[in-house]
Each structure stands twice: as C-alpha cells, then as structure tokens.
Amino acid sequence: xxxxxxxxxxxxxxxxxxxxxxxxxxxxxxxxxxxxxxxxxxxxxxxxxxxxxxxxxxxxxxxxxxxxxxxxxxxxxxxxxxxxxxxxxxxxxxxxxxxxxxxxxxxxxxxxxxxxxxxxxxxxxxxxxxxxxxxxxxxxxxxxxxxxxxxxxxxxxxxxxxxxxxxxxxxxxxxxxxxxxxxxxxxxxxxxxxxxxxxxxxxxxxxxxxxxxxxxxxxxxxxxxxxxxxxxxxxxxxxxxxxxxxxxxxxxxxxxxxxxxxxxxxxxxxxxxxxxxxxxxxxxxxxxxxxxxxxxxxxxxxxxxxxxxxxxxxxxxxxxxxxxxxxxxxxxxxxxxxxxxxxxxxxxxxxxxxxxxxxxxxxxxxxxxxxxxxxxxxxxxxxxxxxxxxxxxxxxxxxxxxxxxxxxxxxxxxxxxxxxxxxxxxxxxxxxxxxxxxxxxxxxxxxxxxxxxxxxxxxxxxxxxxxxxxxxxxxxxxxxxxxxxxxxxxxxxxxxxxxxxxxxxxxxxxxxxxxxxxxxxxxxxxxxxxxxxxxxxxxxxxxxxxxxxxxxxxxxxxxxxxxxxxxxxx
Length: 570
Fold this sequence. Notes:
Blueprint: H1 5-17, E1 26-31, E2 39-44, E3 50-57, H2 62-73, H3 86-93, H4 97-109, E4 115-116, E5 123-129, H5 130-137, E6 142-146, E7 152-155, E8 158-162, E9 169-173, E10 199-200, E11 209-210, H6 218-224, E12 239-243, H7 251-261, E13 272-276, H8 290-303, E14 308-313, H9 317-330, E15 337-340, E16 344-345, H10 351-366, E17 370-374, E18 395-396, E19 404-410, E20 416-417, E21 424-430, H11 436-446, E22 458-461, E23 464-467, E24 471-475, E25 478-482, H12 485-505, H13 515-518, E26 526-527, H14 537-540, E27 558-559, H15 561-567
Parallel strand pairs: 12-14, 12-15, 13-14, 15-17, 17-19, 19-23
Antiparallel strand pairs: 1-8, 2-6, 3-5, 3-9, 4-5, 6-7, 10-11, 16-18, 19-20, 21-22, 24-25, 26-27
Helix pairs in contact: 1-4, 2-10, 7-8, 8-12, 9-10
Subcellular location: Secreted, Extracellular space
Signal peptide: 1-18
GO molecular function: metal ion binding; serine-type endopeptidase activity; tripeptidyl-peptidase activity
C-alpha cells in the first residue's frame, strides 16, 4: 500500500521521541460473552503462531467526514458532485498527534515495530506471536472450530488496553470478530410446478425467457434494465469487483463466456488484475471459483469495454475487507464503482471494527466511489439460511449506511422479491436521514407484525435490487446457472458504471455515494417491486413482505438505465 513519505516520517518521529510509558492499568476494551452460534472452543492457540494484527487509531473528526460526505452526495446541495481529494478525506481520518504518540509509545515499550498501512495514518499493522499478543492485550487467543464446516479460526473473546490509550486506540483486529465460515457457493433453486417452467418470451423483441426461475444471460439483463450494449470507452472510468476466500476466475472461461453470450465484444477482453494481501490470479480450472467467475463475467459482459479491475484479496476475510478499503483510499484515482458479493452476520463482527470500516467506506464515497454490496442470501436470517433463528440477523457490510446494498428478484417478465434476498434493519446503526421517510412509511404499513424480532430504529437495507437467479456463468469450461444476491450486486454496479461513463463524457463528476440520490431524484429511475417475501426464521415462517415503496427485501426497486440517465440530468 502507498503511504506518503511525509506521513511516515511524522509517525515514526512520534515513535522515536516518545518516552516509554510505565505499564498502566489495563481496561477491557472489547468483549463478547460467547463465540458466535456454530463455533465451539477447541483449545488454546499455539504460542508461536504469528498474528497479523491491525491497530486502529481514533480518527480526529468522523462527524466532519460524514457531513462532508452528505454535502457532496445530496443532489439538493450546492456542492453535489464536488468530491473530496485524497488529502481532504484524510484530514478527517488522520489521528491527532497525541493519539499517534500514545499508541506508538505503547508499541515501542513492548518492543514492537508497526508499519503505517493507511494514507491517513489511522491504521497500523504489526506481526505478533500469540504468546506476546496474550500478554500485550490481556487476551486469551484460542482456536475455535465451526462445527458444520470444520473451519477453524484463532480469536479471543475479550482484550484489554492500557487505560491511558482510551480515546486514542480505537480497536485491535483480529480479536473478537469472527469470520463467516461458509465459503461462497451458488444457491440451488429447484424449479417446481408448471409456473416454474421457463419458456421463451411472448414478446418477440425480448431475449429473456419467462417463468419463475428462467435462465438469464447478459443480453436479457441489458434488455430488462434498458442498458446500452454499445462500447463505452470513457477515459477515467473504472469498475472493480472484489474477491475473497480463495475465489479466482480464469481468462479461458471469460473468453468462452464472451464468445457464447456477447459475440459482439472482443473475446480477448480481459480484466485488470490487482493483488491485496497476497491475493493471486491462478489460471487453471482446478482453482476456478463460481463466485469469482460470476462477478467478473457479468461486470465485463454488461458494461461493454468499461475497464474492470479484478481485485484478488488473500488472507483473513475481515482483514481483507479492511485492507481493500485502505488500498483504494491510498490510491489517487480509485475505480469509481466497487461491487462486493461477500459479507458476514453483523453480530459476528465487533461494533468497533464495523464502525471503523464503515467510516472508510464513507471516505471512499466522499471521494467519488460508489461502494455496492450484496445484501446476503439468508432472507432475514443473515448471510446464510438458518431456519432456527428466533430473531432477525442483519448482514455486514450490507447494513453499513455508507454503502448501497442490493437485494434480489426472480420471475420474468414481472419481477418479484425472491425468498433468499437478505434484508432487515441494523442493530449497530440508526436509520440515516436519507431513508427516514421511505422506511417510516414501510414500518407504518408493517404495524405490529414482527415486533421484537428486529430493530425498528435501525438502518434499513437493502437500498435497491436487481435480478438474482439462474445467471448463466461459464465455470471450468461449462455453463452453470448461479443464483444469489451475488448476481444482483455486480448487475447493479454495472448500471452505475455505465451512468458514470455518460457523466464523465458530459464533463460531469461520477455519482459517488449513491443513497442520497437514490432516495430522492433517483427513485424515478427505479421500478418498485411489490410482491414476494424473505421469510427465513422460525422454520421459514417469519420475515418481511414486499410492498409499495421501500421494503427490506428489494429496497426502492430495480434499476432502469434510461430513466436513471434522465434522473441525473442527461
């Protein structure tokens, strides 16, 4: 990651000049009562195991950053579209000299050398063996095993910091946040009944099949959302898809995909490869991943010559999310759209980590990047189906108020909210002002239903939706149908990338943080989805139903490119 030499010099000078501190009283900084459901304690972690810790320092003015974000993202603002520079965004995130000095002195006293990994200086990285981490943090790093998947992770249920660092040190990761144990995989949608049998559309001009779960191709989506298929080459435009948990794509499969489904494009079109945390780009069928193939094939297949960056991220998933955000913030010109089809149950992630990563997304939005996330595939039961859940589980980062969360639909020609579309209300963030009217209207219609199962004052998600079932993907040389909000997120991101191309061609700034636009003038470019549900908890009997206006399954609705183009004034 790039960090300015001047910033490094300042931080290192505070480290060198600070006097060693006496060992102060430690106070518990973060803790959880138990490991997340499904995880069991296996035993203590090996003392020699090296932990790659991220140390987050308190930012100097988060409130100022959020105010600036809304100022440049609200269409009614005089500063709409005047995105911040890297230096301007960093000015809100950079810790005070006092905070930097205190944290660095603490590390130095413990014979640890940290590296600065964010351009704002609010994140440090340090490698520490488990034995040292336990001593340093008053922690008990242990091995936890997820019973169903067998996956293991090293975490602690609490940690402490010196009392004098309160207000200076925001968090240490990984500590009490647990990773999603489920690898990304396509959902299997079983067709049943005569209504579910796909058939060719009765509309001769439509390239789409009809039915409950028809197979979908890029030409169908281009038609469905009125997107242009002509080449879109606008200098400065860019679109990134991010891949985690050892998900990779192959150029050979992309070539076959383009030959089969976009023969009007060059079959040699390829992605731009970017590695973070040791992410790799292997090119053999045995390492191909369905999720990665889906994301990159549809990002390229729907945007027709918009440069697409494939960001391959290695290592721990939550650390990878953080390092991806920091890497883009460290760039002077990051891609204007980033789509991610991964997430975790919100309560598996510490509030401190969730808030600080969400602040990084706010900084990206303020700099003109549209951060788009899939809303999850477990209905109201989190990222994955859990019919035994007794309360609704929100998904992170989908419920972060500074990202645009995308739910899923099925059925053609009339779309309906699909049963797996993740949606609900955050337990961490209160409802943002931009969605106050839309969500309040839904809650008034909902009445007393589901009382006690969700947080009615929380940030509602998703914000929008797109089709999400039976996308034809070329995987290991074969066409495979793939379903999930993993389909919806890159589809909606593609619409935004095409809108950005038109805006840049007209000499105007890109859209950046989308939500204040979508909930006001942008709503005219969305098609409301009023049928369907995402029942998942209590043995698939509780959840939400779609309705007129915003709902916690499909948000404000699905995109129409031509109408959104009008909404942005083109």
